[in-house]
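Many introductory courses stop at the sequence. We go one step further.
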Amino acid sequence: MDCPGFPDAALLIVGHGSSANSDSAAPVREHAARLRQRGLFRSVHEAFWRQEPFVTGVRTRITAPRVFILPFFISEGYFSEEVIPRALGFEPGPDWRRTRSEKGQTWVYCRAVGTHESMTHVLLARARQAVEEAPFPRAPSPRETTLFIAGHGTGQNENSRKAIERQVNLIASLQLYAAVHPCFIEEAPLISGCYQLAQTRSVVLVPFFTSDGLHVREDIPVLLGEPADRVREQLKNGRPTWRNPTERWGKRIWCARSVGSEPLLAEVILQRVQEAARWLEDEPQAQPLASH
């Protein structure tokens, strides 16, 4: 992607993080490092809600005239649209303003990375990669494969489900796969039912999560039929909890890595920032920006 860069701006990537599993922060750190190396911003920072460095303490550490905040979340839900922006001094609500000025700085709160239209390409890349890395006994074509997009699902946040269902509809419209379905950990259709739902022998499941955390490494393998004790033992020993492909109940299933660690996401982050930069151009009431 050809990006003009933002030499007067800082980029802050904010993730949920976890006090129980520090690995959940890895994708945020990896993308921040990737973008830092490209030198497109004055500085690139990462922060988290549940682990250090905490988002609540980051405001005093960034000195650039402009600060773009990128919520590294799949959906525009409770954390990405309420908790995080409020912690950064915004006033979230219906049609809330995503730009604010403070002490000579302009802060811009981007939309969640997972709701960008380019996530379709990221999901497809993950699905292809899973099969290409383990084409045993041969790599099935997409036309003879059922694709599942897996999410957490929750009755408390319908946007989580909407983000996945939107991607399912977009990918299905491309007519690449025999069928495309959503599935969830906590909502119907459940991940455990994908064997019955799939009409093809070959199945690929892509976790629509921001990291290969415990949902991806523990919950999904168990829901796909792996014994819980074995999965926990593999986790304890730092070994993979799923082997591609696995034969079960007449199906051959590949489980991809989460979309969060896909390198293409760095480009999606940049597209979100460019989108947010245009908001400033359209807001004459915004604080004048330093020229560089």
